[in-house]
Amino acid sequence: MNKKLILLMLALPLILMLCLFTATSTVSLAIKVAVSKVELNEDAVVYIDLDETYDISYTVYPTNAANQNVSFSAEPVENSTTAIVKIEGNTLSAESCGKVKITVTTVDGGYKDSFIVEISTSKLQGISSSIEKDTIKLGESIDIKTTFSPLVAQYQTQLKYEVIEGVGVVSVNSQGIVTAENVGSAKIKVYCTINNDVYDEVSISVENSYAMEFLKKNETITTKQLSGEIKLFVDENASINSYSLEVLDKNGENYNAITYNLSKENKTLSYQFTNQDACTITLRLTVTTDYGTFTDECEIVRIGKIEASWVVKNDPNGDYTKQTTIIFIGDSGAEIYFEVQPSNLEIKHQIELSENGKFISCEVRDGYLLVKASENALENLNGSSYVVEIITLTIWLDNQPNDIVTLTLTVNVLV
Predict the structure, then answer these.
(1) Paired sense of beta strands 135-137 and 199-207, if any
(2) Within this chain, do residues 342 and 394 fall inside the same structural domain, yes or no?
(3) What is the pLDDT of residue 117?
């Protein structure tokens, strides 16, 4: 047989095996490694400042996965202000304060991982100004209230107030107090001197004053005198056509122990008490003017001879006097009420006990005596089941020490 043919026949199996091995290796190298997961190399919550950028670090597994591409998304965090962010590549830019959940998702397999980004700043971002009411009267003043965003923003004391419309209608000082100067409308700009672009505006209208009100409106006139005079504030262009006056006691009932007269020309109200009694009264004046009918009030406390009495609070039988009481040894004590007229003045007091405190102790609190058995009351009884003690309470006004009133009360101290 031809030697060449024999050699070819012997080499053919080797050539076939080599071809098979080569083909198998080529198929193996063509297989792509799939993604199994993705992990963020971040804390659960990352804190950054506004206008700051942050590079998001992550790892796709296995690290030799063929497709390493990912996408990022942002979504709100429950019950929180959602921050606005922008993500380019893996760089996050903070554009507003708040919280946001950032999620990385693999393109291959859709594997995810997330973390929270919390964005804050101390830089002033905005202000919001308001007033309690948008219409005030001539001569009235009102505060501008301003809040800041964020609440901890810097430069909160660097505010400036400027009347930008209606100059002369109102004035505003450096503390934001607006005062009505003339009838009309005005607009006030509130801004930060550090950043003029951060501002807000408030609008306000000024109306003519009421035609009448007491000069001492919402004040109490305290006097020892039997007579007095109250000046009225009446619009200079208004004439008083008619008036009526109600004089009421502290219970809202008519109080007949006063005479009065209103001078339309002098715009004053004079009054005269017809007795020496201490009292608290309300003068309710109604006047009719060219502008309409107006009503206002003024309270007068007349300091005369003071009066005092024991009273029972919420007594179901309607009994408003109390001459005796009972104190049981070991109990927490009793509240024994008294009433002084006039009621809104400071009083001084002195307590005397008939047995010099052997059986009870007393102290004056807000409108009542707190009476308790003394620590040695049981021992001092010496076997008796009860003892009688008399409390003497002397009361006087701080500025009238010679005008005193005395109350006495019988107390039974029992085992």
Answers:
(1) parallel
(2) yes
(3) 92
